[in-house]
Amino acid sequence: MLKVGMVGIGGISGAHIPAWESMEETELVALCDIRPERLEPYPGKHLYTDFGDMLEGEQLDILDICLPTYLHAEYAVRAMEKGIHVICEKPVSLNGGDVERVYGAARRNNVKFMVAQVLRFWPEYVLLKELYDSGKYGKLLSGAMSRLGGIPRWSWDNWMADEKRSGLVPFDLHIHDLDFLVYAFGSPRNTQLHRVKRPEQDYMSAVYEFPGFFVTTEASWYAAPYPFTAGFRFQFERAILAYEKGQCILYGEDGTVTDLTEAAQGDTGGINLPKSDAYFNEIRYFTDCVLEDRFPERVKPEELQQVIQILNSL
Q: How far is 281 from 118, CA to CA, in rounded Å?
């Protein structure tokens, strides 16, 4: 039985906790957050308000980091120096140099490390990559991806509104789509960016050019309470694959319309994320890597480095 600890019991932890609890091979034994009230719903766990105390008081096999972005690398290294395997919420950092820092710590201490880039495990996005790789519907011609919502007003200490701590929309929201693009298609040859960046809202649109096709993306934190939406539409030579309003539909050139929607499972907590089993998928994959003593190659450091480099150039 792998003993798991989690640090940072904010919004995204609501997507991670059920995944750990559902697996027979893991036991979520300890939770840590500087806000005692965030720990109150979990009286059956070992509860800590100091991370150092948790590291000293527990014999953990895995640490799940759900902290604000600017703390990810530091806490990951501290845990790995104790011989603990680490899965960390995205992004690993706002600084590309931290990619080598965390992966270097993993190598030195012979532990597993993975950044939880969840779209790589999201069933509809996995399908998109499979159709691209197989060429089943011909060449990819164009794509469009969006990730839109109102500015988050619920974050601890309002850290998400602080560009030095969150990186704002590029690093907190758009990174999902860009990471998937780099994972699925490689590094773009060229990028065109338009952005409205103001204290009360942040919107960006970027076009990424790849050999033979381009992908238009947009991401927002609007000042108005616009409901969160995310999806894509990709044009192949012989079909359109669209993931919109929670439905994944394949429109064939022969007139067929096929519903490929994955059944939603689980509850992702209180931050209005789409329901999916992708959070379980990524945690299951990482756990299997630990159990089988293999490094999580599905998320590669060179891809993370490329994504951070692109985001810092926007």
A: 8
